[in-house]
Amino acid sequence: MLPAMIVDLQAEVIDNQLLSAEYNVLTLTAAGIAATAKPGQFVMIRTGTAFEPLLRRPFSIFQILRDDSGNPYAITVLNKRIGIGTGQLYVTSPGTRLGVLGPLGEPFPAPTAETWMVAGGVGLAPFATLADSLVATGMPGRLFYGARRGDDLYYADWFESRGIALHLATEDGSRGDRGFVTVPLLRSLAARDGGALSIYCCGPTPMMRAVSDLAARHGHETWVSLEQVMGCGMGGCYSCVVPVRQSDGQPHLVRSCIEGPVFAGSSLAWDSLASGH
C-alpha cells in the first residue's frame, strides 16, 4: 500500500515541447499528483512502454498546470536527453501513457523572507513551482541562472513574466555575466546591507557546494535539491544515499528520496558527497 498522498497512475502525455536538441518539457495529465505536490518534490516516471529501462527515473515537478477554474490537472517535467530513459522521454508522442508515481520527497521549506533561487542547467527544474508560490504569496524573488551559453537559458522569460528578477550568467558570455552563476550571486550578496534571505539551489554538485559556501560566509543557509540517481524513489533500494553530518561531525548516510531531495547545505558532508562515499 502506498503512503497517503502518494499516487501511482497512468498519466497521458498531452504535450511534448522540444526546447533544443537536448531539452524538452513534457506535460502529463496527473491531477492526483498536481493536487498535493509542493515545490521541491519529485515524481518517478516509467519512461517507456517496453522493458528497457526496467526502473523508473526521478524528475523534479517543474510546473503544476491549472484549468480555467484554478483546479490542478497536469504537471510538467523538464528533461535533458542523456541516456536511454531520458532519450525515450525526449521523443514521447502525445497520447502515450506513462506510469508516474508521486509526489515524492521532502519539499522546500516555505520561504520566510526575500527568496533567491540559484539554478545551473537542468537544475532549473524545481523552481517553477516555487516561483508560482512566491507570486501567490507576494514574496519577492530572484533567479540566479547559469548555463553554458545564452541559448541554454530556457524559460528565463517565463520567470521574468512572473515578476522574478533575473541574474544570468553564461560560460561563453553570450548572455548575462561571463562565468559561473556564482559571479552574479557573489556580487548580489556583497551588495546587501543585512536582512534575511531564503536561498534555494539546484544544479551540479560543485555548484551547489560553492553556492552554499558563499551564502554561509554572508550569514545565510542554503537549501539544496540534490540530483541523486534513484532506483525506486521510496527508500527501498538504498541507491540514493547521501552523507549528512552528525553531531560529532562524522558523515552518516541517509536516503535522499526519503529525507530529501532537499537538504540544508550546512548539513551535508560535501567532501564525501563529491567523492561518492
Question: How would you sum up this structure in a few lines?
Answer:
The chain has 277 residues and is α/β, with parallel strands linked by helices. The protein has helices spanning 31-34, 84-90, 127-137, 156-161, 182-191, 205-217, 256-259, 270-275; strands at residues 7-18, 23-29, 42-45, 57-60, 63-66, 72-80, 97-104, 115-120, 141-147, 165-170, 177-178, 198-202, 222-225, 241-245, 251-255, 262-264.
Describe what you observe in this structure.
Strand 12, helix 6 (205-217) and strand 13 form a beta-alpha-beta unit. Helices cover 22% and strands 33% of the residues. Strands 4-3-7-1-2-6-5 form a 7-stranded antiparallel sheet. Strands 11-10-9-8-12-13-16 form a 7-stranded mixed sheet, with helices on both faces. The protein has helices spanning 31-34, 84-90, 127-137, 156-161, 182-191, 205-217, 256-259, 270-275, and strands at 7-18, 23-29, 42-45, 57-60, 63-66, 72-80, 97-104, 115-120, 141-147, 165-170, 177-178, 198-202, 222-225, 241-245, 251-255, 262-264. The longest helix has 13 residues, at 205-217. The mean pLDDT is 93. It folds into 3 domains: 7-104, Elongation Factor Tu (Ef-tu), domain 3 (Beta Barrel), CATH 2.40.30.10; 107-225, Rossmann fold (3-Layer(aba) Sandwich); 229-277, Dihydroorotate dehydrogenase B (pyrk subunit), domain 3. It has 8 helices and 16 strands. The chain is an alpha/beta fold.
